[in-house]
Amino acid sequence: MPASDSTAVKLLTLARDLQRRKARERQYRFVAEGLRTVEMLLASPLEVAGLLVTASLREDDRGRALLAMAEAREVPLVEVSEAELASAADTETPQGVLAVAAIPERRLAPPSGPARYLVLDALQDPGNVGTVIRTAAAMGVTATVALPGTVDVWNAKVVRGSMGALFHHPVVMMSWEDFGRFVETAGVELWAADLAGVPLPSVSSADCPERLGMVVSNEGAGLSPHVAAAVTRTVHIPMAPEVESLNVAVATGILLYALRVASSSSQSS
Amino acid sequence: MPASDSTAVKLLTLARDLQRRKARERQYRFVAEGLRTVEMLLASPLEVAGLLVTASLREDDRGRALLAMAEAREVPLVEVSEAELASAADTETPQGVLAVAAIPERRLAPPSGPARYLVLDALQDPGNVGTVIRTAAAMGVTATVALPGTVDVWNAKVVRGSMGALFHHPVVMMSWEDFGRFVETAGVELWAADLAGVPLPSVSSADCPERLGMVVSNEGAGLSPHVAAAVTRTVHIPMAPEVESLNVAVATGILLYALRVASSSSQSS
Fold this sequence. Notes:
2 copies of one chain form a homodimer.
Chain A: H1 5-17, H2 21-27, E1 29-33, H3 35-43, E2 48-53, H4 61-72, E3 77-79, H5 82-88, E4 97-102, E5 115-121, H6 126-138, E6 143-146, H7 156-161, E7 171-173, H8 176-186, E8 189-199, E9 211-217, H9 225-230, E10 233-236, H10 248-268
Parallel strand pairs in A: 2-3, 5-6, 5-9, 6-7, 8-9, 8-10
Antiparallel strand pairs in A: 1-4, 2-4
Helix pairs in contact in A: 1-5, 3-4, 6-10
C-alpha cells in the first residue's frame, strides 16, 4: 500500500539511522537490501515495517512481482529517488529496493534431543559471517551463537551475505557468561578447529557427542581465553603444506559437513 | 634498491594500466596489493618487476621487514604518495604497498599418476574465485582450470582473495576446446555438482576415478553446454530443505574435502 507523506519521510530517516549498530539495537529493526534478499524477507514470517523502492523497480517482471508480494502482505511502500535509496543503503547496488524489518527475538531453547551449535568467536568480517550463517543453515545446525567481538549479524552486509538464512535460521548474540551457562546446563560439548587437533577424517561417529558446539574464530587471532578454556577437543582439516589456512566460511563448511556425515552414520548404525 | 626517476614514473603508469585485463594479457604482468599478499609474492619464485610503496610503510616493523625482503631480492622500490598508490590500486586499502610481477607461464602437464583438477566453469565473482583457488591449493588439487566466462585470475581482487595460493598453485586459463582435448588424452573423468546428483557422502573410494576433474559453476547459472555434455557423473551436497544453495567457495571446499578423504581411504585399503 502507498504510504502517506509523513510515513515516507520517517521510513527513509529510519533506514538511514539503521546503518548504525546502536540504532538497530535501540529500534529492534534492520535493513535488508537488494532484490533476492527482499524477496526472501517477504517470503519469511518476519514483520516488515516498509519498503523503499525506486521507479526503476517497476520496469521488469521480477520487480513487479516483488511489489505484488509486498502489496499482498500490506507492507507500506515508499517511492524514493535513486540518490535517496543510495543514502540509506550499505551496499553499492541495492537494486532499487530496501526493506526495514523487525529483528526477531531469539533465544537458545534447552535441547530435548541431539543438537548442533555453531559458535562464532569474534568473527569480524561481515561477508564471511553472512556466508557462515548461510552454511550453518544449509548444514542443518540447530542454532548459531555469535559471541562478543563478532560483527552485528543484523548489519546489512551480513544480512545480504546470508542469502536469507538469517530469516529462518536462529542466530543468537550472547555474552560468554550466558553461553557458558547454557553449555553447562544443556550438556553441550565444545569443539574447535586447531592445527594441533585430531585430523577431521579420523573423527568417527562414536566420537561425536549428542550435543556439540563447533567454535570457529578469526583466522590468525585464535580463540578468546574463556572459550579456549571450555573447549574439550580440537580437530583440524588436513591441508597441503604450502597453505597456511582456509577461508573461515570454507573451513566452517567442511567442519559442519564432516560432523553431519559422522552423526548421520552413527544414527544409522 | 631505489629506482631512478624514469623507472618510477614507468612503474606507476604500468601498475595503473594493469588494472585492465587487456593490459595484463599484453604485458604478461599483474598487480599484487597489500602487506600479506606482497609478502607471499616476495617469498615465491615469481619474478617481481618492482614495488610501489608509501612513506608510511617504513613506520612499523612489518613494513620494514617487507622492504628488507625486497632489497634482498634486488626488487626496484618506488616511493609514491598515498594518492598515487590509490590511483593504481584496485582495493580500498593497499596498506602502503603494491607490487608489479610477471604472470607465470603455466600449462597442464599430462599426468603420470593420479590427478585431481578443479574446473571453474564461468565463475565470475573475483572474491569467490580467489577463495576457490586458495581452497584448491589447500586440498592438494593438481591444477585449477579456468574456462571461458571465468574472471581473469590475475585480477587484483582474485590475487588478493587467493592469499598467495596463485603464486604456487597452478591455475591455467584455457578454452573448452583445449581442455576437452586434454581431458580425452589424459583420461580425466569430469564430475559436477548438481541437485539431481548422487549424495556426496555415499560416494565411495571405489567410485573415485584415478584422474578426476571436479567442475564448479556459477550459482544459479548452471553448467555451460560443452561442459555439461562431457560430465559423466553429478554429485550433490545434502542440505536442509530451507536452503537453496551454498556459496560456491564453501561448496568447492566440501566437494574437494570429501573427494580427498574418499581417495586417501582407497589408497590405504
